[in-house]
Amino acid sequence: MSESLLMKGNEALAEAAIRAGCRFYFGYPITPQNEISEYMARRLGEHGGVFVQAESEVSSINMVYGAAGAGGRVLISSSSPGISLMQEAISYIAGAELPCVIVNMSRGGPGLGGIQPSQSDYFQATKGGGHGDYRMIVLAPATIQEGCDLMATAFELADKYRNPVMVLGDGMIGQMMEPVVFPEVLDATELPPKPWATTGAKGRKRNIISSIYLDPEELDAHNWRLEEKYRKIRESEVRYEVLHGDDAEWFFVAYGTVARICTAVIQRLRKEGVKAGLIRPISLWPFPDEAFEKVADRAKGFLTVEMSTGQMVEDVRLAVNGRKPVYFYGRTGGAVPTPRSVERRLRDMMDGKVPSQTDYFDRVGGAK
Amino acid sequence: MIPVYTRPKSLTDVVTHYCPGCPHGIAHRLVAETIDELGIQERTVGVASVGCSVFSYNYFDVDFQQAAHGRAPAVATGIKRVNPECIVFTYQGDGDLASIGMAEIVHAAVRGENITVIFINNAIYGMTGGQMAPTTLVGQKTTTSPFGRDPSTQGYPVKISELLSTIKGAHYVARFSLHNPANIQRAKQGIKKAFQNQIEGKGFSLVELLSTCSTNWGMTPQNALKWLEENMIPEYPLGEFKTGEGE
């Protein structure tokens, strides 16, 4: 049995990637995820792997394109502004159907923003941050242990669907320390072969990795073939957790760090007899609509809590589809919703009031 | 009868999309001959760029990856780091390499990345219809320098080989021209050296090939070759700028 180790989130995720067979890492410094690069620089060589610090995020993600196309199990990590720079290549990677895992330890934006935890990259991650019709699988851990477990899942899904997979954390997940138990090191030689990779055309026809289709009919066919793949992912790869799904009437909807705050609030509310529950999407794309189907009839209302001005709440509204009220509460820029503020919003909702969206307008007055 | 001139094994038997009179065909042939002569077809991986050579993967009978605009050296880095036994080359034009891809080419050289770069410099953006490139000569008319490139607002031509030869990590940097048979032969020797270096693990090698774009220069192919000789070579002197000797 593996022992439990106390580790910083970023380092734990890097170790989990190595244990999941990742042997190639490309990065560029940006806070708050530098420990991933630093860990890889120290440790990847021990496993026969390669660490490259690129000259920019643009270059690093294009190295990922090349390495993934050459058949490597590849990881890249960055934080929000760096992920923005990578969007063109992520679109190419999706278009050329290459497997890779991208970690975004997101921080507050827009622009240079701040370096504190944020969830304001939800749209970018789940709605196609780059150009064209493509989708990226997005997994959001709420604990460091879950992040490590999802790292292996991310590599498996990337290979299975030949698609980029993002592990979307936030500065909190990256920077805090928690106990974690790692799986055994995966035998990288036992991974399924990649006969499509550009490894030199010895004894076979040449392989070509490309995303260009100048003929409209061909590009249309390519896009609909991709869409068919995305449909299969929507069908098979939805991941979520529901707390108190059997009796809850008032649901929080939250992912990652914020889901933990909501869980603490639920424990307190339950002691006072409030039937509160939680829907925690783990796969942000595909979004777990089915979690809402199961509870929508009984639920009296949903309160989406995010470290953003309201991004995932749009998907929650689509899933609930007008059947029950959906409200939102959020903080941004590194400000984290407090349990007290979260509880007050739920109690407002229970009292039939529209909860205020943010503490900011509470302080300065203005729109609700 | 013994054929003395045949299609290189590493070129596919298809009609290219290049304009009549375009030297891309010559450059392709030189690279393919080199791959054949060095016996590396089964372990070569090419990286196509964005520009007229975007479809070069259709013409080389080797594994290929098509890269985003300017990023071919980064893509080649990824391929080479995963499979060091592969011989990896990029094939890039001057818009791709000398403008949008300047960071990638400079830093591939800085890292001494063991790859081969074939750089076609024809002083213009061909694929997009003849816009000014960083390599466009002073006074040269293009669709975005319709009155001739004016240094006071548009600067001067960038000399990639000279620039890269200042970088310690670059092992071999040389400029050749494709305007006549004698120079084509010299270019062939340079290309071969650039691939041989990679086989021997010597590091980053770049061959710049002066070329023409008769379509966008608005000249006949013959006049374009003459214009290259009379105008480009004085600006872009030929020769080996860095040979890795004595290092």
Structure description:
Chain A is of the alpha/beta class and 368 residues long. Chain A has two domains: 4-236, 3-Layer(aba) Sandwich (Rossmann fold), CATH 3.40.50; 240-364, Rossmann fold, CATH 3.40.50.920. Chain A has helices at 9-19, 34-43, 57-69, 80-85, 87-95, 122-126, 144-161, 171-175, 216-236, 256-271, 289-295, 312-320, 339-350, 359-364, and strands at 4-8, 24-27, 50-53, 74-78, 100-106, 137-139, 164-170, 177-181, 208-209, 240-243, 250-253, 276-281, 283-285, 301-306, 326-330. In chain A, strands 3-2-4-5-7-6-13 form a seven-stranded mixed β-sheet, sandwiched between helices. A five-stranded mixed β-sheet of chain A has the order 10-12-11-14-15, sandwiched between helices. Chain A has a two-stranded antiparallel ribbon with strand order 1-8. The longest helix of chain A has 21 residues, at 216-236. The N and C termini of chain A lie far apart (52 Å). In chain B, strands 2-1-3-4-6-5-7 form a seven-stranded mixed β-sheet, sandwiched between helices. Chain B is an alpha/beta fold. In chain B, helix 1 (24-38) packs across helix 7 (181-199) and helix 3 (94-100) packs across helix 4 (102-110). Chain B is built from nine helices and seven strands, in the order H-E-E-H-E-H-H-E-H-H-E-H-E-H-H-E. In chain B, helix 7 (181-199) links the parallel strand 5 (170-177) and strand 6 (204-210). Chain B has a single domain (24-242), classed as Thiamin diphosphate (ThDP)-binding fold, Pyr/PP domains (Rossmann fold), CATH 3.40.50.970. Classes of the chains: A alpha/beta (368), B alpha/beta (247). Chain A binds chain B through residues 24, 26, 50, 52, 54-56, 58-60, 62-72, 74, 88-89, 92, 96, 198-203, 206-212, and chain B through 41-45, 47-48, 54-55, 57, 61-68, 71, 74-83, 85-86, 103-104, 106-107, 110-111.
